[in-house]
Design a protein that fits this description.
Helix content: over 70%
Shape: flat
Strand content: under 5%
Structural class: mainly alpha
Order of helices and strands: HHHH
Radius of gyration: 22 Å
Oligomer: single chain
Number of strands: 0
Number of helices: 4
Amino acid sequence: MTGAHWAVIGVLAIAAFSIRVVGLIAGGRIRASRHAWVLDELPGLIVVSLVAASLAGQPVQTWIAAGAALGAAVLTNHVIATMIVGVMLYAGLAMVGI
């Protein structure tokens, strides 16, 4: 490997380390501020944004199955039951042709 390759590896290593250090500093400052509640809600917000982004542009049967899965999640608070309801309803709607 040439010196340029090692330089790129070094710069990327420093950048990766810097990103983590900045995250630790920012997280500490947020925890000490009045916006600390955001960190508690962040995992759920990330999941909701991923699900919403994956539903964009999907057919109606996907939205119906997602709605049923949401209902199962609210009623049971059980991940496996939620997945089973969503997948089974999606498969059922696909078999019917909706």
